[in-house]
Write a structure and sequence with these properties.
about 300 residues, two-stranded antiparallel sheet, 10 helices
């Protein structure tokens, strides 16, 4: 990761006080606070991959069309695209883990620096003198190396954990495979021998789930709750807040602190609604065309003039 340069720059600024132990700690705090920013790009790429996977689901419209239009090449093409999507998901999962490892490593190194500063300050009789003594050293600490070593330590610690999930079973990978219509097995936590088979019928959309639980209308601007996972239309959510209610409207949900800060745009739901409406319009046009043809047949093809 290139994030290590943030704290490494703090090594050069460590001679200038920034409060909690100098420039290194200041830079570490900035890097830690940007964790969600680092992850946002991964989330956007994963959302696009997930939406594409849903279009390429087994038995879906694209597969049906291609198998009819080009049966000799369709299977190979679909297999290649699905494998590419799974590779993208694995890449996203790897980057996600690397971000978390980096942030945890920075926290660990920051803690070490804080403890060293406190020890130096205590030995010198005060924080200011201790910092001055540290600044006077000819060989400043190599924080970049410290972070790299801490990242490796965090990684090895995760891999040695009995509950560690391998990359190919990461939630991002498994979710995308489900969208592709694959039968996937998720390992139950704390029990390596207990496998739970999960099969999602992603090829069909339940009309009920395409409607806002508050307004009862099709989603126009769907937002997903990051806390409880439920989706609402933004208009419906604003209506709910206007009544000063803060409980998730889904029956049985224990989220009693609903707020705008908990929600994010649900691009996947937008795609589902758009697909449903497109299918409905196509079906209506076909019904209208069939009715027109039936009327023509009933009328006959000749008019007898007397």
């Amino acid at each position: 990761l290139t994030f290590t340069c943030t704290m490494a720059r703090g090594r050069n600024n460590n001679r200038t006080s920034h409060g909690d132990g100098g420039g290194a700690i200041h830079s570490a705090n900035m890097a830690i606070n940007k964790e969600q920013e680092y992850k946002e790009g991964v989330k956007k790429l994963q959302n696009r991959a997930t939406m594409t996977a849903e279009l390429l689901t087994e038995g879906g419209e694209i597969e049906t069309f291609l198998m009819e239009a080009d049966p000799d090449n369709a299977e190979g093409f679909l297999l290649a695209q699905r494998n590419r999507l799974k590779a993208i998901a694995e890449g996203n999962a790897k980057q996600w883990d690397e971000i978390e490892n980096f942030v945890q490593a920075v926290k660990d190194v920051r803690g070490d620096v804080q403890r060293q500063n406190q020890s130096s300050a205590a030995a010198a009789g005060g924080e200011g003198e201790g910092e001055a003594a540290a600044a006077g050293t000819d060989d400043p600490p190599d924080y970049e190396r410290s972070i790299q070593e801490a990242i490796e330590k965090v990684r090895l610690g995760k891999e040695s954990d009995p509950n560690h999930v391998p990359l190919e079973e990461h939630e991002m990978v498994m979710s995308l495979r489900e969208k592709l219509g694959e039968k996937v097995k998720k390992r139950a936590r704390n029990d390596d021998d207990d496998d739970l088979e999960i099969v999602n019928n992603v090829g069909s959309d339940d009309v009920h789930v395409l409607k806002c639980p508050i307004t009862g209308m099709f989603f126009e601007d769907p937002v997903r709750n990051k806390v409880c996972g439920h989706t609402y239309d933004r208009k419906g959510l604003n209506q709910l807040f206007s009544t000063r209610k803060t409980k998730c409207p889904i029956p049985g949900c224990s989220n009693n602190t609903l707020s705008l800060a908990q929600v994010e745009v649900d691009d996947e739901m937008k795609l589902k609604v758009r697909r449903h409406k497109t299918r409905e319009e196509a079906a209506k046009k076909k019904r209208d065309l069939d009715e027109t043809m039936d009327d023509d047949e009933e009328g006959g093809g000749y008019t007898v003039l007397e």
